[in-house]
Design a protein that fits this description.
With 399 residues, the chain is of the alpha/beta class. It has 2 domains: 108 residues; 231 residues, Spore Coat Polysaccharide Biosynthesis Protein SpsA, Chain A. The chain is 55% helix and 13% strand. An 8-stranded mixed sheet has the order 3-2-1-4-7-6-8-5, with helices on both faces. Strand 1, helix 2 and strand 2 form a beta-alpha-beta unit.
Length: 399
C-alpha cells in the first residue's frame, strides 16, 4: 500500500476513533457505577397531588386511577387528579367514576402535554394544599411504594425526583422485551450512576415528582414534544438536581407492533433531536466555562446519539483498525477497537442483567441486530418535531 494512503488512514482512525472513545468511555463509566443503590427509610409526611395528564385515554384511565388509589400511603395525604386534556371521548367521566378528581381542559390553540402540565401545576399551586406534585401517565401502573420513596427524598431536601420508568407488558413481543432492556440502560443504569456522580437525573415524563417550591422557582414553560427533557434542562440551569428513586417504579404499556412502534420511536427521537440541536452544544460550552459536572453530564445526555449510532461509529473504527493492522502492522489500532467493542457489549449486557427479564432477556438479544437496522432505517426520513399531543395506540385498544 502506498505511503500516500497512510495520512488518509490516520485521519480516518482519528475521525472515527476519538468520537467512539468518548462515547464508549462515558457509557463505560456509567456502567461501572450502576450497582444497586441503598434506599432511604420511607417517609409518609408529604402531601401529594398525583397528576394524570390524559388525552383520549378512555380505554386505560380507569385501570390507572384504581391502581394509584391503592398506593401504600395514607389516603388523606394524597389525591389522584386527572387532567382530561382536549378529550373527545369519555376519559373525564370514567376517571371520575373510578375515584379520581378531574380537571377538564379545552384549548384548541395550546395543545400538548406541556400545556396540560402547566395548567395543572398552576391549579395545584393556587390550591396550596400539596407539598409536591407527581406526574404519572395514563397507561401506567405504579409500585405501591412510589409516594413513600418520593417523600423520603423530599424530606432529605430534594426538589425533584424521578422514579424508575419501565415496561408494563415486556412479554407482549420481542420488541417490548428489547424496549425493556433499553429502558433498563437509559433509566436504571444511568439513574444509579448519576446518583453516585452527584449529577442530575434525566426526567422521563412519567414517574416525576416536583416539590411546590421547585415549581415556583422554575415555572413550567416546556411545550415541545420532549417537554420532560426541556424542563429537566431548565432545572439543571437553575442549579437544581433531579434525584433518582431506584426502589420505586412506574411501568407503562409499550406498543408491540411495527407500525405503532415506528410512530412512537420517531416522536421520541424527533423530540431528542430537537433538544440536542437547541441545547446540546450550548450546555457543553456552559459546562466548560463554569466547570460544572452537572451541566457536562446533562450535555452528554443530549449529545450522545442512540446506541445503534454509537455501534456504527465503533464498527467503522474497528474496520479501519483492522485495516491498519493488516496493512501497516499497527496493532494498537486493532486492540483499541477491540477494547471499545467489548466495552460497548458489556454495557448492553449490563442492561440485560438490570432488565429483570432473566433468560428471556438473553434470548431476546438475538433480535437486536434486526432492531438496530430498523431503528437506523427510521432515521432516514426526518422525524416530526411537532409539539402537539400525539397519542400512541394502546395495546388494549387492539384487543
Amino acid at each position: 500500500m502506498s505511503d500516500a494512503f497512510i495520512p488518509v488512514l490516520l485521519a480516518g482512525l482519528l475521525l472515527t476513533g476519538l468520537p467512539s472513545a468518548v462515547m464508549v468511555g462515558y457509557l463505560t463509566l456509567l456502567t461501572l457505577l450502576s450497582g444497586r443503590l441503598p434506599a432511604p427509610a420511607p417517609s409518609r409526611q408529604a402531601r401529594f397531588v398525583v397528576l394524570v395528564p390524559a388525552h383520549n385515554e378512555a380505554e386505560v384511565i380507569e385501570r390507572t386511577v384504581r391502581s394509584l388509589l391503592q398506593l401504600d400511603y395514607p389516603p388523606e395525604q394524597f389525591r389522584v387528579q386527572v387532567v382530561a386534556d382536549n378529550c373527545t371521548d369519555a376519559t373525564a367521566a370514567l376517571a371520575e367514576a373510578a375515584g379520581a378528581r378531574v380537571w377538564v381542559r379545552q384549548d384548541d390553540t395550546a395543545r400538548g402535554k406541556g400545556y396540560a402540565l402547566r395548567f395543572a401545576y398552576a391549579k395545584v399551586l393556587a390550591e396550596g394544599w400539596a407539598d409536591a406534585v407527581v406526574v404519572v401517565d395514563a397507561d401506567t401502573e405504579a409500585s405501591s411504594n412510589l409516594l413513600s420513596a418520593f417523600a423520603a427524598r423530599l424530606a432529605m431536601g430534594a426538589g425533584a425526583v424521578q422514579a424508575y420508568y419501565g415496561v408494563l407488558n415486556p412479554d407482549a413481543s420481542w420488541r417490548t422485551r428489547l424496549v425493556t432492556i433499553a429502558l433498563a440502560l437509559f433509566h436504571r443504569l444511568r439513574g444509579r450512576a448519576r446518583v453516585r456522580l452527584g449529577t442530575s437525573n434525566k426526567l422521563n415524563g412519567n414517574g416525576m415528582c416536583f416539590s411546590v417550591n421547585t415549581l415556583q422557582r422554575v415555572p413550567h414553560e416546556a411545550f415541545s414534544i420532549a417537554e420532560d427533557l426541556e424542563y429537566g434542562i431548565a432545572l439543571t440551569r437553575a442549579g437544581l438536581v433531579v434525584d433518582y428513586a431506584d426502589e420505586a417504579s412506574v411501568l407503562a404499556e409499550m406498543v408491540s407492533t411495527a407500525q405503532a412502534a415506528q410512530s412512537q420511536r420517531q416522536r421520541w427521537e424527533g423530540g431528542r433531536a430537537q433538544m440536542r440541536q437547541q441545547h446540546g452544544w450550548p450546555l457543553f460550552a456552559l459546562a466548560l466555562r463554569t466547570r460544572s459536572l452537572r451541566l457536562l453530564d446533562q450535555s452528554f445526555e443530549l449529545l450522545l446519539p442512540p446506541l445503534s449510532t454509537v455501534l456504527l461509529w465503533v464498527l467503522a473504527f474497528a474496520a479501519l483498525g483492522l485495516t491498519a493492522w493488516l496493512t501497516q502492522g499497527w496493532l494498537w489500532a486493532a486492540e483499541l477497537a477491540a477494547c471499545l467493542l467489548v466495552a460497548l457489549i458489556a454495557h448492553v449486557l449490563r442492561g440485560v442483567a438490570l432488565s429483570g427479564l432473566g433468560r428471556q432477556g438473553w434470548l431476546t438479544l438475538a433480535a437486536a441486530p434486526a432492531y438496530v437496522v430498523w431503528k437506523l432505517l427510521l432515521r432516514l426520513p426526518r422525524a416530526s418535531q411537532a409539539s402537539a399531543w400525539v397519542r400512541t395506540t394502546r395495546e388494549k385498544s387492539r384487543g
